[in-house]
Amino acid sequence: MLTNNLKRHSPTIAIIGGGLGGSLCACFFAKHDFQVHLFELRPDIRTQKTVKGRSINMALSRRGHDSLAYINCAEMIANTGVPLYARMMHDENGHTCAFPYGPYEKDPNHMILSVERDALSKCLLDEASKSSNITIHFEHKFISWNRDTKEALFCTSSGTQVKFNVDFIIGFDGSYSSVRAAMMKTEKINLTQEYLDLYYMEINIPAKDGQFAMPENYLHIWPRHKFVIIASPNQDKSFNATLILPISMFDSLSTSEEVLQFFQQYFPDVLSFIGSDEIIKTFRSSTPRPLITIKCSTYVSSAGDMLLMGDAAHSMAPFYAQGMNAAFEDCLVLFETLKQTNFDFQKAFIAYK
Question: How many CB atoms lie within 10 A of CB 77?
Answer without folding.
Answer: 21
